Amino acid sequence: MIDLQNLSVAHRQGYEQRTVVHDVSLQVAAGECFGLVGPSGCGKSSLLWVMAGLNPNWQGTMTLAGHQATSGKPFTGQLRRDVQMVFQDPYASLHPRHRLKRTLAEPLKLLKVRDIDDRIEQGFRHVGLDPALADRYPHQLSGGQRQRVAIVRALLLEPKILLLDEPTSALDMSVQAEILNLLNKLKQQDNLTMVLVSHDPDVIDHMCDRAVRMERGYIK
């Protein structure tokens, strides 16, 4: 489902580029949860953002859900739908001044999806939320509820790959466990392939079938 070969990632700094991930090669099978663990600044989130199509500054070969990605170009078409991401801070994917239903509906409208309200209602039920919450603003929900809504946002496009960037690190311990158990349940129900970034080995151990450690931009 995921095949990276000799992948390097750069960040722009003014007129220059600084390489932050060096020659990473890895494969993730369909239905697997694969972990990237390591200290802050080691390059794990930078690698994840490239796999999400959020940073075009990479070199190497990247195949996701059968689609060959092209360096320097944004994800489009089916590839854009097949790969979705859940961020550490759900505010990154939820507009603070829009009701949740409006935020969740916008990508579906662009794709001319039918029965949008029904899909959103089913999505809320799928993650254990009352569909009535869709009429609220993000600040009216708890941190755990917001992260569940962020998961709904990612799953509405029915992706094959779900990328998770420290999805529970901003939550307290009891809510962390709820979200991790939910993600495990969704992985099985929806046959998702997941890549989970975390600095916490216990989270990786709980969630992942396999994992690698990153240090200073390299896989160890």
Automatic annotation (TrEMBL):
Database matches in CDD domains: ABC_NikE_OppD_transporters
The EC number(s) given in the record are 7.4.2.10
Assigned keywords, A-Z: ATP-binding, Cell inner membrane, Cell membrane, Membrane, Nucleotide-binding, Translocase, Transport
Q: Where is the ABC transporter domain?
A: 2-220
Please name the GO terms that the record assigns under molecular function. ATP binding
Q: Where in the cell is it found?
A: Cell inner membrane
A Pfam family annotated for this UniProt entry: ABC_tran
Provide the reaction this enzyme catalyses.
glutathione(out) + ATP + H2O = glutathione(in) + ADP + phosphate + H(+)
Annotated membrane topology: Peripheral membrane protein
Q: Main localization of the protein? A: membrane
Q: What class of enzyme is it?
A: translocase
- Family in the record: Belongs to the ABC transporter superfamily. Drug exporter-2 (TC 3.A.1.117) family. Belongs to the ABC transporter superfamily. Glutathione importer (TC 3.A.1.5.11) family.
Q: How does it assemble?
A: The complex is composed of two ATP-binding proteins (GsiA), two transmembrane proteins (GsiC and GsiD) and a solute-binding protein (GsiB).
The free-text function statement in the UniProt record for this protein reads: Part of the ABC transporter complex GsiABCD involved in glutathione import. Responsible for energy coupling to the transport system.
Per its record, how is this protein called by name? Glutathione import ATP-binding protein GsiA
Which source organism does the UniProt entry give? Erwinia aeris
Q: What is the lineage of its organism?
A: Bacteria, Pseudomonadati, Pseudomonadota, Gammaproteobacteria, Enterobacterales
